[in-house]
């Protein structure tokens, strides 16, 4: 019983997580502003025109029959259909007899009934479109999951409406295809370490495809790169080995420099006995200073070489 309960709980958590987390490859459509205000305005306008026509027919002509009601309703609906409202960030593409006529908006827009139609409302704001590529093979045949976001906007409402059927969905498909092509040309190490390069490459490729549609690509940002777990440990060990290699190279270079400096100093000391004595006295002084003592055992060969200088050094230390 407990086992069954735990299984049901796990399934519930899995379903809950899948409901909360949206797949990166799911089609994305930008949200549209509500048209309630425009619809309400059209209804009020139609009602006002209908009432005005009835008043004219009744008080001016003395007519009131079904034909008058039908004509008044037809005129009111036709007039309401000629009025459109575009938000500040919208542009409306108007076609006349099916051919492009103009781009209107924002604000109140009037069209000729039957002759002109509002083909589409185009949102001119910046749109963020999440996209990704799942189980995409790199050049070294490693499957990776990529999650990214694309920022774009429409700069030519006419081209966006006429050149492509659903420009927002087309941008998503272009981005996914460009992502898979770019990943396929790179190794898994390049994908993990070259995010900025990948961003620039994707932006360039997507921009070339969407420019004829009147769409500008602002930026592409790779948000997450998921590498198989078994490969993450291998890459970590490889990176650690690379760091150790670099550390050893730096240490070897430092030792080489030190050995060269010691060799140069040895040449100087060999040519100048006074310099060697001064260096020896300095080393003795540092040794006594660090140990805090006043008695130092000096080899006879070294003390003979120093002569009276060693005695002077000892007296100076005692005086301190």
Beta content: 15-25%
What Rg is obtained from the alpha carbons, in whole angstroms? 42 Å
The number of distinct helices, counting runs of at least 4 residues, comes to 11
Q: Trace the largest sheet across and list its strands.
A: 3-2-5
* Overall strand count: 8
Protein name: Slipin family protein
Domain Band: 81-239
Pfam family, one: Band_7
GO cellular component, one term: plasma membrane
Secondary structure blueprint with pairings:
Layout: H1 2-20, H2 36-60, H3 66-81, E1 83-86, E2 90-96, E3 99-104, E4 107-110, E5 116-123, E6 127-137, E7 143-154, H4 157-162, H5 167-184, H6 188-193, H7 195-210, E8 215-226, H8 229-271, H9 273-291, H10 300-306, H11 308-319
Antiparallel strand pairs: 1-4, 2-3, 2-5, 6-7, 7-8
Keywords: Membrane, Transmembrane, Transmembrane helix
Family: Belongs to the band 7/mec-2 family.
Organism: Eggerthella guodeyinii
If you had to describe this structure to a student in words, what would you say it looks like?
- The chain is rod-shaped.
- It has a three-stranded antiparallel beta sheet.
- It has eleven helices and eight strands.
- The model is unreliable at 1-31 (pLDDT under 50).
- The protein folds into three domains: 22-123, no CATH class; 127-227, Tetrahydropterin Synthase, Chain A (2-Layer Sandwich); 272-319, no CATH class.
- With 320 residues, the chain is an alpha+beta fold.
């Amino acid at each position: 019983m407990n086992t069954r309960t735990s299984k049901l709980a796990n399934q519930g958590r899995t379903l809950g997580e899948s409901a909360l987390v949206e797949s990166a490859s799911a089609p994305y459509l930008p949200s549209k502003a509500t048209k309630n205000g425009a619809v309400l305005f059209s209804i009020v306008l139609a009602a006002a025109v209908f009432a005005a026509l009835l008043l004219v027919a009744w008080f001016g002509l003395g007519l009131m029959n079904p034909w008058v009601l039908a004509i008044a309703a037809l005129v009111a609906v036709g007039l309401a259909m000629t009025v459109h409202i575009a938000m500040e960030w919208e542009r409306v593409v108007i076609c006349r007899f099916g051919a492009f006529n103009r781009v209107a908006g924002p604000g109140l827009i009037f069209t000729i009934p039957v002759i002109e139609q509002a083909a589409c409302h185009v949102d001119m704001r910046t749109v963020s479109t999440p996209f990704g590529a799942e189980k995409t093979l790199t050049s070294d045949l490693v499957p990776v999951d990529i999650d990214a976001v694309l920022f774009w906007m429409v700069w030519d409402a006419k081209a966006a409406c006429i050149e492509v059927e659903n420009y927002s969905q087309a941008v998503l498909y272009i981005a996914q295809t460009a992502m898979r092509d770019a990943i396929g040309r790179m190794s898994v190490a390049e994908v993990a370490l070259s995010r900025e390069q990948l961003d620039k490459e994707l932006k360039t490729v997507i921009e070339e495809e969407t420019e004829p549609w009147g769409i500008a690509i602002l930026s592409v940002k790779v948000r997450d790169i998921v590498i198989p777990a078994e490969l993450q440990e291998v890459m970590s060990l490889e990176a650690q080995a690379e760091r150790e290699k670099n550390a050893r190279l730096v240490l070897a270079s430092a030792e080489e420099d030190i050995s060269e400096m010691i060799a140069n100093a040895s040449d100087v000391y060999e040519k100048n006995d006074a310099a060697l004595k001064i260096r020896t006295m300095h080393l003795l002084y540092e040794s006594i200073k660090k140990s805090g003592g006043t008695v130092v055992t000096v080899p006879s060969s070294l003390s003979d070489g120093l002569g009276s200088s060693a005695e002077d050094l000892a007296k100076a230390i005692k005086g301190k």
